[in-house]
Amino acid sequence: xxxxxxxxxxxxxxxxxxxxxxxxxxxxxxxxxxxxxxxxxxxxxxxxxxxxxxxxxxxxxxxxxxxxxxxxxxxxxxxx
Length: 80
Description:
- The protein is mainly α.
- Helix 2 packs antiparallel against helix 3 (about 55-75).
- The chain has 3 helices and no strands.
- The relative contact order is 0.10.
């Protein structure tokens, strides 16, 4: 693990992008249990419904994005 002592707020936009992209290109597959994704999806739907019922549009939209992202991850499942 790389323990960079440099402050992340002092890095340039380009170096930040390079650092973040290296997290995805230099590592292997991430193994995520399907049941964990389903659980997170159920939680996200419940949070979305709660915020929607409270008419808190900002938080409802945040949870909507979370739901969409989880569905995209589920769609990327590699069938054996």
